[in-house]
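User: Hey, my collaborator sent me this sequence without any context and asked if I could get a structure. I don't really work with proteins. Can you help?
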Amino acid sequence: MNSRRLERLGVAEIRQAISRTGLVFVPIGPLEWHSYHLPYGTDPLNAEAHAHALAERLDGLVHPTIFMGTNLTRNPDEKDWLDIGHEQDEVVGMDFPGFPVKSMYWSAQVVDITAREAVRQLQYVGFRVIVIMNGHGDDSQRAILKKIAEDMSKDDLKVLYFIPFWDDGGEQRWIGHAELFETAVALHSYHGLVHIERLPKEGKLAYRRFGIVEGKAFGGEPAEDRSCLDEADPRKASRMQGRRIFQRNVDAIARVIQKVMSDFSTTADK
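Assistant: No problem. I've predicted the 3D structure and written it out in structure-token form, which is a compact way to encode the shape of the chain:
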């Protein structure tokens, strides 16, 4: 990884990289509750792992990971789906009542300003294709970063936005929070930070107690008992499965970036 880390390279290496592809990745995501078995930085670490794999594949560099993200307040319907209850007026993101550690959610304005400035500075340095790799699934974060990519792209600069979990229209469509998919990828990318043994060996994993939630619950289709579905149980995750998911993500995103870079180069030559 070190050969792709922008902050660890010298002037010659940076200039050569800019000359070859002008490609750089910006991983971003908040420090957030991911139950008892995953690290606090699961989202940004996931974005970082994908960014480095893509940088190796496409001959790019990686900006230092930005540990920052925002989240919306849970509405009444979401509180019902997640079994949070209404005794607490405001519940933001995964900060369910009773969790021992709070998440670090930044204001939307700060996320917007910071991410825009990172893109602006990277363009100033000379990069021509800047890829924002967002590890956080909150709707507001996704909208902010996608809008930045749209706003800041122009004839001599392409800004792209991706969330690592590729929506393939199939099994990955319903990825949730700290569940099987996210845990499997974590096992592949940084298995030493994953501690499945910190979860109970048997029994249901209630949304409210563990913050482990399959994607369908966030979409208004929670399990009747408000516990993680068996099919999304993180205790069933494996490194092999994580590797398969991770590689599929990288392959899909790489194809899009390659197409953009090819079109961009063709346009620039004209």
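In plain terms: The mean pLDDT is 92. You can pass these tokens on to your collaborator as they are.
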